[in-house]
Amino acid sequence: MTTVLEVSGLTLDFRQDGRNLRVLDGVSFRVEAGRTLAIVGESGCGKSVTSLAVMGLLPGTARVGGAIRLGGRELTALSAEERRKLRGGEMAMIFQEPMTSLNPAFTAGEQVAEALRLHQGLDQGAAFAEAVRMLDRVRIPDAARRARQYPHQLSGGMRQRVMIAMALACRPRLLIADEPTTALDVTVQAQILSLLDEMKRETGTAVILVTHDLGVVADHADEVAVMYAGRIAEQAAAATLFASPEHPYTAGLLGAAPGEGARGERLASIEGTVPDLRNPPPGCRFAPRCPFAIVHCHNEAPPLAEVAPGHVSACWRAPLDGVLAAA
Amino acid sequence: MSALLEAEGLVKRFPVRDALGRRAGAVHAVDGVSLSVAQGEVLGIVGESGCGKSTLGRLLLNLITPDAGTVRFSGDDLTRLSASALRARRRDMQLIFQDPFASLDPRMTVEQAVAEPLRLHRIVPRAQERDRVAELLSRVGLRPELARRWPHEFSGGQRQRIAIARALASQPKLIIGDEPVSALDVSVQAQVVNLLSDLIRDLGLTFVLISHDLGVVRHVADRVAVMYLGRIVEQGPAEDVLSAPKHPYTRALLAAVPGHGAKAPPIEGDVPSPIAPPPGCRFHTRCPFAVERCRTDQPALGDGLHRVACHLADSLPPPATRPDRLAGGERLRRLQSFFRAPGPLPGAPA
Questions:
Q1: Of A198, A174, A3, which Cα lies nearest the Cα of A88?
Q2: What's the pLDDT at B262?
């Protein structure tokens, strides 16, 4: 397998009210060609800023540390102009709300064609013809006609298909999809996610799927990184993570999603709220909400350690079988 | 069981105007919906955006007037009550909205927000107001000391608890929750779902839960009505509808819930425009089983405990099995048992 993206020790700091705010604190992961890594977590855990850091889309006030390598090339060393050239070409991103990422003044076809002109040097006519072909590939019915329509004339699902066509037009090595279906209805969500899977298989693009929805992760990810308060709590192959999580936060999160469980049975609820990043707890950031926390957890942050081959957890009490045996 | 709430043939259309303000058709938001909710029952209304579920919720409370049909609440036809009689009735029925950031007045402290309905409906004498507010706040898992604070000092989950306390203040018989947990993060959502289940059980509330989230509905509802383009397509006991769905749309909806890796490809296309809904069965344009009759004849919902509006309901192949990839095993269940607190959780300080 070829590693497309390797992120190591990623940190992100903002100045806020004269104080330093550490939003990401040592995030590391890699994504292989043709595979999907899901980054999952609740609001404020840092999953979206991680993808913006990789894309180089953070505002100038953000200070990024650590390494981001795309196909062996260190992105943090590149100039703003060099990074701009990568976006839409070697790496592309789709967002939650396609209406705000599409330009209302241009037709769907023109917007897909623009990427092809800029990155592949096609002339206007060839680019538009290729754009229509891309729209057809993302299964927009009657693509030639739809290519001449403006975003407001398309449904939400259709707009997200246009975004996918735009993102994949130049065959990027890396595609980041940040909550790509959160604004869509569930039947349309299923269509879009299976389209993304199919496109990934065809093109061998590495995909980072940023989501809060564990169900989406279970169906569409190969690898999963669970984030909590700016750090990775646990990372493993998707099947492993769902069958035997080794971080208490992952277990709690899985129990909090109402699923097929018996009616009326209480959902697992993680007491309290996420920590304030202006004043994070000194030890493990989940410790204040963790039913398994011991004194050590409150004092020292646990490193991300291997509990099984390919399965890492940042928990002093992992592997959790020991905790259960003692209970 | 007697029906506390009974709706008959509800129709609501919203006129659509063109750029010049001329009438250009109407959105058929709710188109002939009948349902009843028994005292103490939880009815889940599910469907995707634009199916009319929120409009139905407002019709049930008579917050908007139907174009046709009636709503009976403990025997009174709400559409025929005088304004003052309706106002008095309001005390018995409350609405909880999706967005707790928009539903609380930012210029009212928590105490003022919760006390307002107490005063409006003269629930307790002034002197007891403060005590009652404290009682309501602890009832929803918030520390009474937080009463003097302002809404902006609270997180989304805490604000939704405040909105629930406010809804409970007038001691309603019926609460309609319109996507009450949809804006919350999953761990917080679980806290609020647990709270709602406790309140429904302990106070014997009648609850109508409007939601697009089948997991949440499965968790709390006794009965479920599935809506598509303004009509109920399937209705019955929650377990029957969600485990043995009969309508092709309900099946598609369930198959699309992530985490179940449905083998069948998702249904194609988007929901048609409610301005010009298709003739016959409204789902026929996306239905994999549709036959000629479905394009012309509108199917009736039928009778019985488990009702379905589909010409082919009895001849469809059994629905595909749905693996639950989030279920985990015994070990995971044991880990999760440590997260299950026995009662409503105390609210963390803002």
A1: A174
A2: 59
